[in-house]
Structures are given as structure tokens and as C-alpha cells.
Amino acid sequence: MAEIALLLGIILTTLTVVEKILIIREKLKTKKPKIKKRQRPRKRR
């Protein structure tokens, strides 16, 4: 029974880590267009 409990714990931890990674990736995707907008105002001197 202890082995099953450990496996369940590992699965839960992996799922939480995957969810965090997905959230971070979504945040990065939303941040990228903002960076592009910042680069546009650079005028040719």
C-alpha cells in the first residue's frame, strides 16, 4: 500500500509541475508581443 501512495504522490507532484510550466509558457507568449511593441518606437537616427 505504501508503494501505491508514493506513486500517487509522484503523479500529483508531476501534474502540478506540468500545470505550472503550462502557465509560465502562456505568460511568456503574452509577454512576447509586448516586447515587440517596445522595439517598434526605435526611430532611425
Would you write up a description of this structure?
The chain has one domain. The protein has one helix spanning 2-39. With 45 residues, the chain is mainly α. The model has no long low-confidence stretch (mean pLDDT 82).
Task: Output the helix-strand order.
Answer: H
Q: How helical, in percent, are the residues?
A: over 70%
β-strand percent reads under 5%
**pLDDT under 50 segments (min length 5)?**
none
Distance between the termini: 71 Å
Query: What value does the average pLDDT take?
Result: 82
Based on secondary structure, the structural category is mainly alpha
Summarize the SSE layout with pairings.
Layout (H helix, E strand, L loop, with lengths): L1 H38 L6
Brief characterization of the structure:
This protein is an all-alpha fold and 45 residues long.
Provide tags for this entry:
rod-shaped; 45 residues; single chain; 1 helix; mainly alpha; 0% strand
